Amino acid sequence: MTDLVLLAGEFSREDDPEITRAVRSLDGRCARVTIAVVAVPQRMLSYGTPFCGAAVIEQVHEGMERECQRRACGLAQQLCPRLCVEHLVVTGWPELLRHARRREYDEVVVADAPTHLRDRFLLRRAGVR
Questions:
Q1: What angle do CA 105, 77, 112 make, to 5 degrees?
Q2: Which pTM was predicted?
Q3: pLDDT of residue 56
């Protein structure tokens, strides 16, 4: 029987030993792995923010999404070639939890903890470690 595994995180730091350990723990398993990169929008707080326009903010978010897709592909290359891998980019930890509930994963592995404290509390309340 094939396990459905969700490997999630922001994955903002390259070569983090925790991420490498989580990826290596999937080697040798019969699993379908979804690599979910959580894109956390950066807060644009400055005096000029109201004047920068929606187009610039939209471009920043598109660039952030492309970067997250690149990270997901890089992680997939580290996995065993026998695993079936799916990529996913979500905008925020609440969206990740909704996705995990819909797909009913057998195992959810958070390989890279959230940077924001409120997101850590959200995961703890949901029972995800």
A1: 55
A2: 0.77
A3: 66
| pLDDT band for position 54 (cuts 50, 70, 90) | low
Name residue, tokens 């398993």.
29
**Sign (positive/negative) of CA torsion 77, 98, 108, 28?**
negative
What are the structure tokens assigned to 110, written together?
A: 């958070």
Structural domains in the chain plus CATH codes: 3-126 (3.40.50.620)
Question: Phi and psi (nearest 5°) for 35?
Answer: -95, 115
Is pLDDT above 60 for 46? Answer: no
| Helix segments in 15-116, DSSP class H | 17-24, 54-78, 93-103
